[in-house]
Design a protein that fits this description.
The chain is mainly α. It contains 10 helices and no strands. Helix 5 crosses helix 6 and helix 5 crosses helix 8. The longest helix is centred in the middle third of the chain and has 19 residues. The protein is globular, with a radius of gyration of 19 Å. It starts with a helix and ends in a 7-residue tail after the last helix.
């Protein structure tokens, strides 16, 4: 009962972002079940920060965002659910293109492509499960892929498991338009001219470190 309640809360938190995530997964032609990876990464909390310093919905470390996301004194795009979603999918697809195996692509997302590649070369292992059986991976990575597969199975086949989980509802997703700005402007000024509250602008631009 506790697990079902927790998963329900996570999926309710995920509702505003699920349509965008699904659209991006389809656009990049990757497995649609990757929609559930943030469940084990961040519990779909866009402000999640791990003990190791990973941030956001998809838990990016600062040293892994080069060419994907921006972080400076003004902005941390790891906290932006839309920008970080596309960055995560790009990274996952890059991992898959390298290994041609989704279990290895997921493991590489957790421990780094370079680290996993070196481990495979040094051990001669060809699959994720060989690496696990040989004890060649850290505990976190060993549990990472099975945990994802279990969560994806539970949510996808919730009726089979007799779980009452929130179903996907596109009407609960944010309906937004991206408007690039060429200069800095305060959210208060934007609020005055757009009629959108400062609070809403902050909610929709969580990567901004200042208003």
């Amino acid at each position: 009962d506790y697990g079902e309640k927790l998963l329900t809360q996570i999926l309710e938190r995920a509702a505003p972002y699920r349509t965008f995530i699904r659209e991006k997964l389809a656009e990049y032609d990757v497995p649609l079940c990757l929609e559930y990876l943030p469940v084990i990464e961040s519990n779909f909390n866009i402000f999640a920060v791990s003990k190791s310093g990973a941030v956001g919905l998809w838990q990016f470390m600062e040293n892994s965002i080069s060419g994907l996301l921006t972080k400076n004194i003004w902005i941390d795009e790891r906290k932006d659910p839309w920008l970080s979603t596309e960055a995560a999918i790009k990274k996952l697809k890059e991992n898959y293109n390298y290994f041609q195996d989704w279990n290895l692509a997921l493991a590489a997302y957790n421990m780094g492509l370079g680290g996993l590649s070196r481990t495979m070369k040094s051990t001669g292992c060809k699959t994720f499960w060989e690496l696990v059986d040989g004890g060649h991976l850290k505990t976190e990575t060993t549990h990472y892929v099975p945990k994802f597969l279990a969560i994806a199975d539970l949510i996808t086949n919730s009726q089979y498991y007799d779980l009452s989980l929130p179903e996907y509802n596109p009407n609960q997703s944010y309906n937004t338009t991206l408007i690039p700005l060429k200069f800095q402007v305060s959210l208060e000024q934007l609020s005055n001219v757009s009629g959108i509250s400062v609070k809403s602008l902050q909610t929709l631009n969580p990567g901004l470190l200042y208003s």
